[in-house]
Amino acid sequence: MNSAPTALFESYEQDFQQFIATIGRKLEGEERANERGEERKTTLRRVEMELDEADEMVSQMEIEIQGIPQSIRAEYLARLRTAKADLARYKKLLKEQRAQVARSDLLSSSSPPYTSSDDPYGTNNDRARLLAGTTRLEDGSKRLQESQRIALETENQGAEILMNLRTQREQIENARTTLHAADSSIDRASNTLKKMIRQMYKQRVITAAIILILVLLIGLIVWSKVT
């Protein structure tokens, strides 16, 4: 198993590229021209699920890039930005094609097979229904865009929180290392002080012994003079 700091990022990136290639064939390839009606709707639903999977791959790439060393992180940030751009482009293309399918369904359902010339309001009613459906579709697209914006903001905030947590963890680890070093220094200083205290006691004992010997010698000298 590859334990390099970029291994997981590259793995997620490879999975993302596979999803994007499949999505590109469905949205821009020959399948788009050959599919109609419900078949096209089914394909677009599959594309939506695949885009969700690709979005998850991008989120994992954002998490893994935090563990890549600063010396090579710039290259991987550029690759991440490219992946995000591809994802955003295909999301926009999916939204456009779904709008086209919805508009086609609306036109086909609102247009009767035959309009009598005796009904002067038939065409106007169809146009009104078409305009109302288009308005509803635009409102739905706006709500979808707003939801995507909120999701992106939440995603960015999550990535920022993860980065802050990682920074705090590094600070705690550095503080722990500093504390260990200080503890070792205190132990060494304590041992040195103990040695100095023992040496001081030895010097006091030796000094007292010398003084005692000198007193005895002086006493002997005095005694010998007196006797």
Automatic annotation (TrEMBL):
Coiled coil (UniProt feature): 44-100
Could you tell me which Pfam families the record lists for this protein?
V-SNARE, V-SNARE_C
Give the T-SNARE coiled-coil homology domain ranges.
129-196
Q: Where in the cell is it found?
A: Membrane
Q: What is its main location?
A: membrane
Region described as Disordered? 101-126
> Which family is this sequence assigned to?
Belongs to the VTI1 family.
Q: What is this protein called?
A: Vesicle transport v-SNARE protein N-terminus
The scientific name of the source species is Lyophyllum shimeji
Upper lineage is: Eukaryota, Fungi, Dikarya, Basidiomycota, Agaricomycotina
